């Protein structure tokens, strides 16, 4: 049995840089037409110069036969220069700006401390139609890790939407029932990405039996009831939910450590995970919209012309693969005991 869909886009990915970028990029560029590249490098992409240099670096590593277009984002800081932002957007160097509240996730230290300090930036983004993408969590001492997303909605999202009702926002990697319900209740200017791992797992998968560092990410995996709410989101009629893998590799010595880093490297099997979840929910007819149409429409981009094909085959991605980066560093894509039902038919060159 075959399943053919329009070539998907990944609207949330961490491609990293240098040797890691070179190694992991083909896993994305062979399956996806475009990807929205997150700007949280060790030296974040805080201006258009950094964004063009980074884009060039990415493009230099795209395998010749892959037709792939990286879409860049700008990392918002409280010192962001308005003219640079407008020029960079109008010259299509980046298509969105990413807001991290400081100290919420990997390389967010240089993010926003007080979002009211960037109201003048949000004002201009609203005016020029530039999308704001947000890591939707606040992490403060009083807030439980499971409530970071809800706290963000209350303390940041609602005030921003109230002050800038015409600003288009993407609520990235939503993980809770509260966020699903919030997005559905809002208007056409609020979209959200959903990762394959938040659809497939909950915190029991990460914590019960043996601890699984490869399932550790931000936002942290939540309860079953939150996972089911995400299933409801992709099963329903709201066309503002779309694909964002949040594939975020960390080298093994940082991942499998007494102080392990958050981030799941899922791009080698992300589409197969999504297809399996949609199949298990009996909603394969909605897979193409989620993977290839809703996001492009939200970002006002043309729909990809090419297609990809899946074939029905059961497999268990339970073997840990080791990808060598250099003599001291290795990466492993996500692996687990659950079965996947669909495999991608790779193009033969
Ligand atoms: N998702 C993660 O757990 N980590 C991401 C950052 C992010 O998307 O928050 C990373 O860059 O490592
Ligand atoms: Zn994030
Ligand atoms: Zn991310």
From TrEMBL:
It holds the Pfam family Amidohydro_1. Residues 84-308 form the Amidohydrolase-related domain. One of its GO terms (cellular component) is cytosol. The modification N6-carboxylysine is found at residue 98. Transmembrane segments: none annotated. InterPro entries: Amidohydro-rel (IPR006680), DHOdimr (IPR004721), Dihydroorotase_CS (IPR002195), Metal_Hydrolase (IPR032466). Pathway: Pyrimidine metabolism; UMP biosynthesis via de novo pathway; (S)-dihydroorotate from bicarbonate: step 3/3. GO terms for molecular function: dihydroorotase activity; zinc ion binding. Keywords: Hydrolase, Metal-binding, Pyrimidine biosynthesis, Zinc. The keyword NAD does not apply. Substrate binds at residues 14-16, 40, 135, 250, 262. The active site is at 246. Zn(2+) 2 binds at residues 98, 135, 173. GO terms for biological process: 'de novo' pyrimidine nucleobase biosynthetic process; 'de novo' UMP biosynthetic process. Its cofactor is Zn(2+). Zn(2+) 1 binds at residues 12, 14, 98, 246. Its EC number is 3.5.2.3. PROSITE patterns: DIHYDROOROTASE_2. The keyword Metal-binding applies. Belongs to the metallo-dependent hydrolases superfamily. DHOase family. Class II DHOase subfamily. Homodimer. Catalyzes the reversible cyclization of carbamoyl aspartate to dihydroorotate. HAMAP family: PyrC_classII (MF_00219). This is Dihydroorotase. It comes from Wigglesworthia glossinidia brevipalpis.
């Amino acid at each position: 049995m075959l399943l053919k869909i329009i070539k998907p886009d990944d609207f949330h990915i961490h491609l990293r840089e240098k040797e890691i970028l070179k190694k992991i990029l083909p896993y994305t560029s062979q399956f996806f037409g475009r990807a929205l590249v997150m700007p949280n490098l060790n030296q974040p992409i805080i201006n258009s110069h950094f964004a063009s240099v980074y884009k060039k670096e990415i493009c230099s590593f795209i395998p010749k036969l892959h037709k792939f277009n990286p879409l860049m984002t700008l990392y918002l800081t409280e010192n962001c220069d308005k003219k640079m932002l407008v020029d960079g957007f109008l010259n299509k160097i980046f298509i969105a700006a990413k807001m991290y509240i400081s100290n919420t996730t990997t390389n967010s230290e240089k993010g926003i401390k007080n979002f009211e300090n960037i109201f003048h930036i949000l004002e201009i983004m609203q005016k020029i139609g530039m999308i704001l993408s947000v890591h939707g969590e606040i992490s403060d001492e009083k807030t439980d890790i499971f409530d970071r997303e809800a706290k963000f909605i209350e303390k940041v999202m609602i005030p921003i939407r109230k002050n800038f009702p015409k600003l288009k926002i993407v609520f990235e990697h939503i993980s809770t029932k509260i966020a699903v319900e919030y997005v559905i209740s809002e208007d056409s200017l609020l979209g959200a990405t959903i990762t394959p791992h938040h659809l497939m797992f909950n915190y029991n998968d990460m914590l019960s039996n043996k601890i699984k560092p490869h399932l550790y990410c931000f936002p942290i995996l939540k309860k079953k009831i939150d996972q089911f709410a995400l299933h409801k989101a992709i099963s329903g009629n709201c066309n503002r939910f779309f694909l964002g893998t949040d594939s975020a590799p960390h080298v093994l010595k940082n991942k499998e450590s007494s102080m392990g880093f958050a981030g799941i490297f899922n791009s080698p099997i992300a589409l197969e995970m999504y297809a399996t979840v949609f199949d298990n929910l009996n909603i394969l007819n909605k897979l193409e919209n989620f993977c290839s149409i809703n996001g492009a429409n939200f970002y006002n981009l043309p729909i990809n012309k090419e297609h990809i094909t899946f074939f029905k085959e059961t497999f268990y991605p339970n073997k840990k693969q080791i990808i060598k980066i250099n003599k001291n560093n290795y990466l492993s894509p996500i692996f687990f005991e659950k079965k996947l039902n669909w495999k991608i038919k790779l193009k033969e060159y």
